[in-house]
């Protein structure tokens, strides 16, 4: 029987220098130590359940001009769509009938999704299905976030993308001077008592190893409930997809391996967080990506439930739609894949556990 990692083990792993060492590590044997530490801690603190969240991309309208994202406002060739309340509710019913505990409503930053419309949709979904509702609708004013929380929304996802402020300013132009910024918004979300999620992309042009170490420190400082990590995948319709630069040794590569290292380090930094095996990881390296992420600290999968006619239009990076199966088929295969890696499918909403609620995993003393 192996010993669970102690707090001290983790502290040793998590100094900034150690983190950058891990990110630069290429020896398979040594990396196996990292995977095992993250996997043991995942089992010990959040158990073997993998929670399924049905992802519905409700609008691809966006007023932002993010240099990485395929649905940014400058992409004038992309046909835009916005689902209506009935269509969104239908997807939530589907999530429920597939046995998922959560529906995630995601969109670009789209004020056509009015505060009122979203509140009504959230209320209907909660009333009819009882599912946990996660919103991921961008940087909205606090009054909108508060209204949605009051309507019953449980969680909010807003990645800070990178903690490197200069890099962030380059890839995410502000709409107005003095807007709060994502880290400030994450604080507001927490005060509104949302379960709060954030995350980063790995391998952005100009991203350095040290700044990924800062990202891990920020995960910890924010005490995030959910952490999403994926490789940066260049989109030809974006500024960052146009001039892919030659790689310097200081540049973090946008690989599945690098994303998995960040995922494992995020688990060590935030042992109780819900951490998905993201679509971006699966997109980059084919079907095995999910399984590998589940073995490196992940405990959530977010199968897409966006209706087919819209899916290809929510192309934040290329290849995303092709990597996903349809609702029924996806749900069946995701369950089989979770079981094939020796895990169980979570029942219920799969909310963040707090230390005192952690399951006593079999064979792992607490
Ligand atoms: N490659 C990888 N991830 C991306 N995202 C947006 N564009 C890309 C891209 N080109 C991620 C961002 C965003 C999330 C919804 O998708 O991290 O927060």
Describe this entry's structure for a reader.
The chain is built from 15 helices and 9 strands. The model is unreliable at 360-366 (pLDDT under 50). Strands 1, 2, 3, 4, 5, 6, 7, 8 and 9 form a 9-stranded parallel sheet that branches. The protein is globular, with a radius of gyration of 19 Å. Helix 4 packs parallel to helix 5 (115-129). The protein is α/β, with parallel strands linked by helices and 366 residues long. Strand 5 (195-202), helix 9 and strand 6 form a beta-alpha-beta unit. It has helices at residues 7-13, 16-24, 28-46, 85-97, 115-129, 142-151, 165-171, 182-191, 209-222, 239-242, 256-269, 279-285, 288-295, 308-311, 327-340; strands at 49-59, 102-107, 132-136, 155-157, 195-202, 226-231, 276-277, 300-301, 344-345. 5'-deoxyadenosine is lined by residues 68-69, 159, 161, 201, 230, 232-233, 235, 280, 316-317.
Short note summarizing the structure:
With 366 residues, the chain is of the alpha/beta class.
């Amino acid at each position: 029987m192996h010993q669970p990692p102690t707090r001290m083990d983790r502290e040793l792993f998590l100094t900034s220098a150690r983190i950058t060492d891990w990110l630069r590590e290429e020896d398979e044997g040594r990396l196996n130590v990292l995977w095992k530490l993250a996997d043991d801690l995942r089992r010990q603190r959040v158990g073997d359940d993998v929670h399924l969240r049905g992802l519905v991309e409700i609008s691809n309208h966006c007023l932002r001009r993010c240099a990485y994202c395929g649905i940014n406002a400058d992409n004038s060739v992309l046909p835009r769509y916005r689902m209506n309340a009935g269509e969104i509710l239908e997807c939530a019913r589907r999530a429920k009938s597939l046995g998922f505990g959560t529906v995630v409503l995601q969109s670009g930053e789209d004020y056509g999704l009015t505060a009122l419309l979203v509140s009504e949709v959230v209320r209907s979904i909660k009333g009819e299905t009882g599912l946990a509702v996660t919103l991921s609708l961008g940087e909205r004013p606090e009054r909108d976030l508060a209204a949605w929380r009051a309507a019953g929304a449980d969680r909010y996802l807003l990645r800070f993308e990178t903690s490197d402020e200069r890099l962030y300013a380059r890839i995410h132009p502000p709409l107005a001077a003095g807007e709060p910024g994502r880290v400030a918004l994450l604080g507001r979300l927490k005060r509104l008592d949302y379960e709060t999620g954030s995350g980063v992309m790995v391998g952005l042009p100009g991203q350095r190893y040290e700044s990924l170490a800062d990202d891990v420190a920020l995960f910890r400082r924010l005490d995030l409930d959910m952490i999403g990590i994926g490789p940066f995948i260049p989109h030809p319709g974006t500024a960052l997809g146009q001039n892919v630069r030659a790689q310097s040794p200081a540049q973090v590569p946008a690989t599945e391996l690098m994303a998995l290292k960040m995922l494992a380090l995020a688990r060590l930094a935030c042992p109780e967080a819900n951490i998905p095996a993201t679509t971006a990881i699966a997109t980059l390296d084919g079907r095995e990506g999910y399984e590998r992420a589940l073995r490196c600290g992940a405990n959530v999968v977010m199968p897409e439930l966006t209706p087919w006619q819209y899916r290809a239009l929510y192309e934040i990076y290329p290849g995303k739609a092709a990597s996903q199966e349809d609702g029924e088929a996806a749900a069946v295969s995701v369950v089989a894949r979770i079981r094939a890696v020796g895990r169980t499918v979570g029942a219920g909403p799969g909310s963040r556990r707090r230390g005192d609620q952690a399951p006593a995993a079999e064979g792992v003393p607490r």
